[in-house]
Amino acid sequence: MNIEEIREYCISKPAVTEGLPFNDTALVFKVAGKMFALLDLSEDSRGISLKCDPELAIELREQHSEVTPAWHFNKQHWNGVDLQGSISNSQLKEWIDHSYTIVVGSLPKSKRETLR
User: What is the dihedral of CA 104, 106, 110, 113, to 10 degrees?
Assistant: First the structure.
């Protein structure tokens, strides 16, 4: 997936907003104000950071060389994915979905109900 396809996929999720922090070098995707993805836009390091269940985070790092702890977040709960690697589009979408689901699941019930 290219950057625009990833962006479109992330914002297609219910109640997602995007922002440009970090001097316009990344897009941040949030649901109900909580971040679930950070898409690096810099030319030298195309990647996406995704929130992850800690056990799955470790498993993905062991199975895929393109997946590493995200340097700018709690490394136990966030993975960085190198988009220049061999990760398939379906695998990347699955990981984005997982990240979104983790964040939505952490919201108070009243906020989760408004997402439907």
Answer: 30
Query: Angle at Cα 16 formed by Cα 68 and Cα 87, nearest 5°?
Result: 30
Query: How far apart are alpha carbons 97 and 91 in whole angstroms?
Result: 10
Domain count for the chain, please give it: 1
Q: Please give the Cα distance from 50 to 114 (Å, whole number).
A: 23
The whole-angstrom separation of Cα 69 and Cα 46 is: 15
Q: Which domain holds residue 71?
A: 3-114
- The Cα-based distances of 20 to 28, 34, 58, 70, 79 in angstroms read 6, 14, 28, 18, 20
The CATH number linked to 90 is 3.90.1150.30
- State how far the Cα of 59 lies from the Cα of 53, in Å rounded to an integer: 10
Q: What residue type is 82 in one-letter code? A: D
Query: Can you list the residues of the chain whose pLDDT is less than 50?
Result: none
Would the pTM of this model clear 0.90, i.e. be above it?
A: no
